[in-house]
């Protein structure tokens, strides 16, 4: 074959591959305008999300401890894991975690996996998208342990199995941090007199299961885009859209679409959650949506719904106490917006 013909054949083979990769990148980015530092990628949509990459926590504390019972079951006590024994790289010869998976998970609801440790059980496709289920971790590639199930990437927790979490490995959630500036009767932004920084408020819900205050988030359904989860969970838990009339839902949807068309990613990764086990753990993507002038969601009447028993606008400061890692997300939000802490 002539050299010219050979080069043409190579180009012909390479071109479809290039087009496929290019189209895959375009499709992946089509939902967002992504900003990386001073660089931006424009798409045809009007949605703008600023993406911030974060690191995996070095350790966890909410899911281990001495005489610490597992959530929703006081009879299940975690095997003690001291600070210097959390890492899987550190030998812990006496480590004997209790094996626990809640009955609500074992009953086989649609949101839960089967017990893949049983003989002749079909194995999920770990570290990838398995059908509609995303089994990838924001922390990177996770290890499959000697029992054939994922191993917690941060370390030991004192409990083996899934606890009350449905998925082996990462259980994906999304947390919308909806904020506004605190204002006085004259609609002026209030400031902390000691540092002259503006006071920021966020919508907090009181969890039905623990009674703790938290960000109104929830689990990402199989095949669901995170942007959809963020709006759905906020509407259901903070605005009680599940029980709203048709007209109320339309008004809420319109205002949420206006606010949620732009946002800033605050965190993406592992969550130090009390439900975590050696084989199942929570991960989230937290976005901040700030109602800067207080004219959209900032004027909404909040109504607790779904898994929440209370909801309120909460002042942000360093004394705030929240569920799991939520205080860290709120602190990061305050720093990004230059608010009082």
From TrEMBL:
Residues annotated as domain Nudix hydrolase:
170-336
Q: What keywords does the record list, in alphabetical order?
A: Membrane, Transmembrane, Transmembrane helix
InterPro entries, alphabetized: NUDIX_hydrolase-like_dom_sf (IPR015797), NUDIX_hydrolase_dom (IPR000086), NUDT9 (IPR039989)
Record field: transmembrane? 12-29
Q: Which GO terms describe its molecular function?
A: ADP-ribose diphosphatase activity
Q: Which top-rank group of organisms is this from?
A: Eukaryota
Q: What Pfam families does UniProt report for this protein, alphabetically? A: NUDIX (PF00293), NUDT9_N (PF25969)
The identity of this protein, by name, is: Nudix hydrolase domain-containing protein
């Amino acid at each position: 074959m002539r050299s010219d013909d050979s080069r043409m054949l190579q180009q012909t083979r390479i071109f479809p591959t290039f087009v496929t990769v290019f189209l895959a990148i375009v499709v992946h980015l089509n939902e967002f305008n992504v900003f990386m530092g001073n660089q931006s990628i424009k798409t045809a949509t009007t949605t703008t999300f600023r993406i911030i990459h974060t690191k995996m926590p070095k350790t966890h504390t909410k899911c281990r401890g001495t005489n610490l019972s597992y959530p929703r079951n006081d009879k299940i006590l975690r095997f003690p894991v001291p600070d210097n024994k959390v890492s899987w790289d550190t030998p812990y010869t006496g480590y004997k975690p209790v094996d626990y998976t809640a009955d609500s998970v074992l009953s086989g609801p649609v949101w839960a996996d089967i017990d893949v440790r049983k003989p002749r059980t079909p194995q999920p496709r770990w570290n990838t998208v398995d059908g509609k289920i995303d089994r990838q971790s924001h922390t990177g590639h996770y290890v499959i342990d000697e029992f054939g199930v994922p191993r917690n990437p941060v370390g030991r927790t004192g409990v083996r199995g899934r606890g009350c979490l449905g998925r082996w490995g990462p259980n994906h959630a999304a947390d919308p941090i909806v904020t506004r500036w605190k204002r006085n009767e004259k609609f002026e932004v209030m400031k902390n007199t000691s540092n002259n920084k503006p006071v920021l408020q966020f919508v907090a819900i009181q969890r039905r299961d623990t009674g703790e205050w938290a960000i109104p988030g929830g689990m990402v359904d199989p095949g669901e885009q995170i942007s959809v989860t963020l709006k759905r969970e906020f509407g259901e838990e903070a605005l009680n859209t599940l029980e709203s009339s048709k007209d109320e839902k339309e008004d809420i949807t319109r205002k949420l679409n206006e606010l949620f068309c732009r946002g800033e990613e605050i965190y993406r990764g592992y969550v130090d959650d009390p439900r975590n086990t050696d084989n199942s753990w929570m991960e989230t993507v937290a976005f901040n949506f700030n109602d800067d002038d207080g004219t959209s969601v900032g004027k909404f009447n909040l109504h607790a719904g779904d898994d929440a028993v209370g909801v309120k606008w909460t002042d942000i400061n360093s004394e705030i106490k929240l569920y799991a890692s939520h205080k860290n997300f709120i602190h990061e939000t305050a720093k990004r917006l230059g608010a009082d802490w």
